[in-house]
Amino acid sequence: MAASEADSLPKARPSQRLNRRKIASIIMAWMALCWLIIGSVFYSVVPGGWLSILGLTLLSYIPLLFVARSFGGPVAPSAHLRLWGFRPFWYSQLLLPLMAIGGLVGLIIGLPFHSSGLLGRGLAGGIGLLYLTGIGLAYFGSRRLAVRELTANLPQLPNELAGLKIVQISDTHVGPHTSRRHLRNVVAAIEAAKPDLIVMTGDQVDDYVDDVEPFAAAFGQLSAPLGVVAIAGNHDVYAGWDGVRSGLEAMGIKVLVNQATAFNYRGVRWWLAGTGDPAGTYVAQGREVVAPDIPKTLADVPANEFHVVLAHNPALWPALAQRNVPLTLSGHTHYGQFAIPKLGWSMASAFLEHAMGHYQLEQSLLYINPGTNYWGIPFRLGTKPEVTVITLQPSQTASIVG
User: Fold this and answer.
1) pTM given for the model
2) For the Calcineurin-like phosphoesterase domain, which residue ranges apply (predicted)?
3) How does pLDDT run across 181-235, given as a tens digit for each residue?
4) Is residue 168 a part of any domain in this protein?
5) Which CATH number does the domain housing residue 314 bear?
6) Is there a single domain that holds both residue 44 and residue 133?
7) All residues at 6 or more sequence positions from 241 whose CB lies less than 8 Å from its CB, including other chains
8) Are β-strands 399-401 and 339-340 bridged in parallel, bridged antiparallel, or unpaired?
9) Which of these, 371, 389, 358, lies nearest to 167 by C-alpha position?
């Protein structure tokens, strides 16, 4: 992203800085409580006792100070800061409360047996070991790219469009810290699929407008006969949509926000539409309104012509299904980055009605890509990052198979 574009972003106001200080103070107090419980369990067996616990507490605050200073600010943090500041912070925010809860439960259970310390250490330490094992597995899970081939059977699809192949990637969350090898693998998978069209269903960048630069470096060479199309995701909005959109368009990507575009394939016209994102409803943006507007999105699409809609947040799908949209492609959920596919469950299932996989309402279909990368920390269990290859086929009944 050009320096002039970054300079045009709104600078943090004093009230915004104050809010970050307030949030940081709350997190510090929460971490102190966790360390107090952990210390109550381990102080008697740790060399230096409470003094060592205090030192560990202060040491754990260091990443938070960097995060509080940089997160949400006008200047994108460096790759080093994201790797050695942001990432340890997120890891600790998962570990500390889990160990504290284990320690507290052990203390309480052990009281009647006069073995509170032993049980507390056993539970807290066991949880810590399980956590470290899980983090290791989840790290490798975040690098195991899957290429999922699906067939979308669509009654509305003209026979001439049979075999039309769309590759979908979503939630790449690219920043300067993102693994270049992983991004090269994504590009290789897309190119190997030989798609007619490439679609990116939001969250291209990782929270900062300058992240368009590494995104462009990774995906700038992508091409397909019908082109490359992207829509806005909530993190693209948070980063500063005007700048992100300009950067995507500079790459030659067609960007759709509450609008549709027509394609001609084998002599038949069909349409691709892209919605805005709900984040645009409450995050002020510059020149463009990014909030979703379903009627506007479909306004140019003739009722009798085939169309596909891209909607980052699958919460928009019911409104699209009511308008008989044949196929909607979404992302956003990441499947919670922790899923049990055989049970049809993911961490996102607790928060979203449509959280993972594919859904059907009468003749309208939805597919939710689990994300092609990760957000926060490299953590994925039971849900690999995915490049989705979708082949469209005419059929008497609607279904997604594969």
Assistant:
1) 0.90
2) 164-335
3) 999 999 999 999 999 999 999 999 998 999 999 999 999 999 999 999 999 999 9
4) yes
5) 3.60.21.10
6) yes
7) 232, 280, 285, 286, 288, 290
8) unpaired
9) 389
Range of the domain at 200: 146-401
CA distance 36 to 281: 41
Do the beta carbons of residue 375 and residue 206 sit within 8 Å?
A: yes
Q: Do 118 and 176 sit in the same domain of this protein?
A: no
Q: Is the model's pLDDT at 95 over the cut of 90?
A: yes
Q: Which helix (H) or strand (E) holds 339?
A: strand 339-340
Both tokens of residue 240? 């500063």
In this structure, the answer to whether residues 179 and 288 fall within a common structural domain is yes
**Hey, what amino acid is at 357?**
G
Q: Which amino acid is at 76?
A: A
> Torsion angle, CA of 188/203/163/367, rounded to 10 degrees?
120
Q: Which two tokens stand for residue 108?
A: 């309480």
Q: Within 10 A of 361 (CB to CB), how many other CB atoms are there?
A: 16
> Length of the chain in residues, anyone?
402
In a shared domain, residues 105 and 157? no
Under DSSP, the state recorded for 257 is: S
Sheet harboring 386-394: ordered strands across? 254-255, 228-230, 197-200, 165-169, 386-394, 146-154, 399-401
Highest mean pLDDT among 52-66, 83-97, 264-278: 264-278
Residue 21 contacts residue 64 (beta carbons within 8 Å): no
CA–CA dist 102, 90 (Å, integer): 19
Q: Which of 140, 164, 190 is the last residue of a domain?
A: 140
